[in-house]
């Protein structure tokens, strides 16, 4: 089967991008990273992409009058690169409804909580403040509502008495790197069927 071309949107370190790059280095993996887009010129993930020989483009959101024109520029770049799937990997901008709808069923996000708990910013801090004993991360399809959308993969980690936000985040991030490539493989391999809010992959 032809590998699906994937565009990855980042704003920072790009450790999840790295996990996807590493997975896609296996020729049997059903997706290849065709383009990495960042809204920050100094995002370390751009260096990771360049090292892997992957094309990069920077769109500074501050240079656009509104969200729609910024999103339209990214959208055009993704389509020009032949991307068929978009992965959000620590991309810190809210996307417009039009952009999200244009990639409906073909855009994934990774969020460091067990959704639907702890949507939005600082989910690891929210988990600590709520006193939960189990935390984790979620790979889900992106819908216009923030951190919503059918779930493809989740992983859990324990919350330890000694945890602070950094320690819990690090434990969750290890699992993010494991499940994001799995979630992308499911979508790229055509294994995902949507029934209501459920993504069935069997
Ligand atoms: C990850 O925790 C991801 O779940 C969240 O932002 C962080 C990005 O980390 N959306 P990285 O840039 O992939 O290292």
Verbal overview:
This protein is of the alpha/beta class and 202 residues long. It has helices at residues 15-24, 44-51, 67-80, 97-102, 123-130, 165-188; strands at residues 4-10, 31-38, 55-58, 85-88, 107-111, 134-141, 151-158, 193-195, 198-200. The strands form two sheets. Strands 3-2-1-4-5-6-7 form a seven-stranded mixed sheet, with helices on both faces. Strand 2 (31-38), helix 2 (44-51) and strand 3 (55-58) form a beta-alpha-beta unit. Helix 1 runs parallel beside helix 6 (165-188). The protein is globular. It starts with a strand and ends with a strand. The model has no long low-confidence stretch (mean pLDDT 97). 5-O-phosphono-beta-D-ribofuranosylamine binds at residues 10, 12-16, 89-90, 110-112, 173, 176. Residues 10, 12-16, 89-90, 110-112, 173, 176 line the site of 5-O-phosphono-beta-D-ribofuranosylamine.
Report the bound ligands by name, code or SMILES: 5-O-phosphono-beta-D-ribofuranosylamine
- Class of secondary structure makeup: alpha/beta
- Number of beta-strand segments: 9
Helix content: 25-40%
N-C termini distance: 19 Å
Low-confidence stretches: none
Residue share in β-strands? 15-25%
N-to-C SSE series? EHEHEHEHEHEEHEE
- Give the CA-based shape: globular
User: How large is the radius of gyration?
Assistant: 16 Å
Q: Largest beta sheet: what is the strand line-up?
A: 3-2-1-4-5-6-7
